[in-house]
Amino acid sequence: MKAIIVDDEFLAREELKYFIQNYSKIDIVAEFTDGIEVLKFIQNNDVDIIFLDINIPSLDGVLLAKSISKFTKKPNIVFITAYKEHAVEAFEVEAFDYILKPYSESRIISMLKKLENTYNNKKDNSHINFISNKINLWKNEKIIVVDINDIYYCVAQERITYVFTKDEKYSVNLCISDFYEKLPNDIFFKCHRSYIVNINKIKEIIPWFNNTYNLKLQDIDYEVPVSRSNVKVFKQLMNI
């Protein structure tokens, strides 16, 4: 796992590095004291974990985490802070953990183990699900094995996600966010709270209201919306 530390206090960074290096196999690839520099870095580098202080220059940790939460590939965020009052905001951006300074050794070690277990489980599940690029979906009370490359788009309806290929409609009993986690993020993009699109199936990008887009897909008469909150990441993804 690759991690970065974002904290403008030198001693706090050194203490956290000590725990990470001695109690985990996490690789610290960079350290930052400034929020804007972090955004620039993670746009061009893969990072699995961000250990993030809240009180940092240029862009505070909460705003930085909100920006990162819109990325296609989202690293786990562990807030390391002296401020209790931001815990609710951390929950809203789905932070992995929220640890208060001064550090508790047992608390830090427990968090590091949990991070490694989560990462290893995700790797194992990814290998099982996509070793042959197949995924199991439901149709007419039967389980159908579908090639993920044949999926054009997905639509949420409460706790069920409907999955569309060129000619067929399937379902899976997962909310769309959970289903999205099972899909390879180099092929699929969650362009809207209710939609996932296969970026390889996009034929046209049509400008729409409020600086959003509609996506016309190959071979089928259907357009998938890109929500305003996802436009920035979509433009980065498509080099617009």
TrEMBL record:
One of its GO terms (molecular function) is DNA binding. Residues 2-116 form the Response regulatory domain. CDD domains: REC_LytTR_AlgR-like. It holds the Pfam family Response_reg. The keyword Phosphoprotein applies. Residues 135-240 form the HTH LytTR-type domain. SMART domains: LytTR (SM00850), REC (SM00448). Keywords: Phosphoprotein. The keyword tRNA-binding does not apply. The modification 4-aspartylphosphate is found at residue 53. May play the central regulatory role in sporulation. It may be an element of the effector pathway responsible for the activation of sporulation genes in response to nutritional stress. Spo0A may act in concert with spo0H (a sigma factor) to control the expression of some genes that are critical to the sporulation process. This is Stage 0 sporulation protein A homolog. It comes from Clostridium sartagoforme.
